[in-house]
Amino acid sequence: NIKTNVSYYDPYNAVDFEDMFGNFLFEQAFRYNPSGLKKACLCGGRFLYNFNRAFRDYRRTSDLSLDKSIKLNADTYVIPGALEVTLMRSEILRQNSSLEHWCVVLDPTQAKWCVEKDYRTKMYKNPNERDYKLAVEWQGTIRWQLEQSHALLRT
Fold it and tell me: Is the pTM of this model over 0.85?
């Protein structure tokens, strides 16, 4: 859980979304970088939409030809100091919920796989089959080390 490195914002009153996000990255997300200058950002759908809309002026064109499409899909953002974050949409931050404006910046190198090692194996078969099958039950998760190297931007 990220409890100490959390920032709050109002998505409906953010005047300059790019400036707000860049400041969050500089002040919060990249304050502590034990494993390098690249991190991943899991975003809600509305957050990612607003982030891409911050660059809407770059999409303008003066060419009137009909065979071109106007698009911009920013998925990597670099701030001064070669601090780089890759943005990815995550369905954990579900659209049309209170989490759609959130983003979580994670340092992937600080992930520790936690898998229960004592697997339980069960034998089963359907009544109309000859062969037995094995089912393996296990539990697992990811533990994020060094909370200060991760950050949460929420509403």
Answer: no
